[in-house]
Amino acid sequence: RQRRRRKSLAIAYEPGQGDGAEPPRVPWEPRDWREQLERIREMRRSRDAPVDEMGVQKCYDSSAPPQVMRYQVLLALMLSSQTKDQVTSAAMLRLRRRGLTVDSVLQMDEETLGQIIYPVGFWRNKVKYIKQTTAILKQKYGGDIPSTVEELVELPGVGPKMAHLAMHIAWDSVAGIAVDTHVHRISNRLKWVKKETKYPEETRVALEEWLPRDLWKEINWLLVGFGQQTCLPVNPRCSQCLNQDICPAAKRL
């Protein structure tokens, strides 16, 4: 009996263990994520979600000088916060009809600006942020917008999601993943984060730890449209989703 007990206590070390060496670290990644991503691409193939037709990338004047174009991108992002794409697009069209530049906004009084952008969400606050940010751009950046996330988030009314999208759209530079409520919600539903995250910034950090960098720019566009059409905040359309069989949050009927 003593012999058998001694034998059961024998420890079999993995290669590299037992001699003080650390075992090789295997990077974490979500289960089935590649297949889930490919199926989301398939569902987004028609590109007919509101973000595709009226998103920020469609709101600026592509024929404007680069500096003006970048300013319009930033303004569209500021207006888009907690506002549907349709409403943002309409507000941007009204602004552009008046000649949307740094100088034109600086010359506009707050009441007029408010009348133009209404009914975007929190329009009164956005009037103040737009006026403040535009003045800073004129004084500090010669009328252009900053070219780094760190400088962008220092502007009044500009958050991390807007900053990363501004880098993507205005500067064609990928500094990080733009995480809005859709990306945040879907990443948690698919378990694309090690543990549940409460805020979009937490989700951004968690995604950037494992998601290949060449997908960082695409992921926002994919998941926003997917969240608008299929993976809705309330009553997601799981029966219409190609990922129903491999989604941890799917309602299987």
Protein topology:
Elements: H1 2-8, H2 33-43, H3 50-54, H4 66-80, H5 85-97, H6 102-107, H7 110-117, H8 123-140, H9 149-152, H10 160-169, H11 181-189, H12 200-208, H13 216-229
Helix pairs in contact: 4-5, 4-10, 7-8, 11-12, 11-13
Overview of the structural elements:
Residues 7-13 have low confidence and may be disordered. α7 packs across α8 (123-140). The protein is globular and about 60 Å long. It has two domains: 32-46 and 176-252, Helix-hairpin-Helix base-excision DNA repair enzymes (C-terminal) (Endonuclease Iii, domain 2), CATH 1.10.1670; 62-174, Endonuclease III, domain 1 (Orthogonal Bundle), CATH 1.10.340. It is mainly alpha-helical. It has helices spanning 2-8, 33-43, 50-54, 66-80, 85-97, 102-107, 110-117, 123-140, 149-152, 160-169, 181-189, 200-208, 216-229.
- Whole-number radius of gyration? 24 Å
What is the subunit arrangement here?
A: single chain
Major sheet: none
CATH superfamily caption of the largest domain: Hypothetical protein, domain 2
Structural class: mainly alpha
CATH fold naming of the largest domain: Endonuclease III, domain 1
* Residue fraction in strands: under 5%
> How much helicity do the residues have?
40-55%
Listing every helix as H and every strand as E from the N terminus to the C terminus, the arrangement reads HHHHHHHHHHHHH
Given the structure, what is the number of helices? Answer: 13
Rounded average pLDDT: 92
* Number of domains as seen in the coordinates: 2
CATH class of the largest domain: Mainly Alpha
User: What low-confidence regions span 5 or more consecutive residues with pLDDT below 50?
Assistant: 7-13
Globular, elongated, flat, extended or rod-shaped: what is the shape?
globular
Give me the count of strands.
0
Under the CATH scheme, the architecture of the largest domain is: Orthogonal Bundle
Distance between the termini: 55 Å
Catalytic activity: 2'-deoxyribonucleotide-(2'-deoxyribose 5'-phosphate)-2'-deoxyribonucleotide-DNA = a 3'-end 2'-deoxyribonucleotide-(2,3-dehydro-2,3-deoxyribose 5'-phosphate)-DNA + a 5'-end 5'-phospho-2'-deoxyribonucleoside-DNA + H(+)
Pfam families: HHH, HhH-GPD
Cofactor: [4Fe-4S] cluster
EC number: 4.2.99.18
